[in-house]
Amino acid sequence: MIAPDGETLRDFSASGLLELNCNPNFRVRGDVSTAPALVDGCVLTDEFVEPE
Q1: DSSP secondary structure of the chain
Q2: What angle do CA 18, 24, 26 make, to 5 degrees?
Q3: 3-state secondary structure at position 15
Q4: Sheet holding 34-36, edge to edge
Q5: Residue 1: per-residue pLDDT
Q6: What is the pLDDT of residues 11-31, one digit of tens each?
Q7: pTM for this one?
Q8: Residue 36 or 1, more confident
Q9: What are φ and ψ of residue 14, in 5° steps?
C-alpha cells in the first residue's frame, strides 16, 4: 500500500491497519504497537511514515 498523501495515511492508521516493517534499524518509540510477522526479521506495526 502506498498512501498518496498524509491525510490518507492517517485514515489508514486510524483503521487499525498494520504495516510490515523489515527495516533492521526499526526501534519501537512511544505508543507504537508491534506484532510478530510471518517473515523472519520483520514485525507488523502501527507506525506509519508520512510520504515526503
Answers
A1: ---SSHHHHHHHHHTT--EEE--TT----TT--EEE-SSTT-EEES--PPP-
A2: 50
A3: coil
A4: 19-21, 43-45, 34-36
A5: 66
A6: 877 788 888 889 999 888 888
A7: 0.70
A8: 36
A9: -65, -20
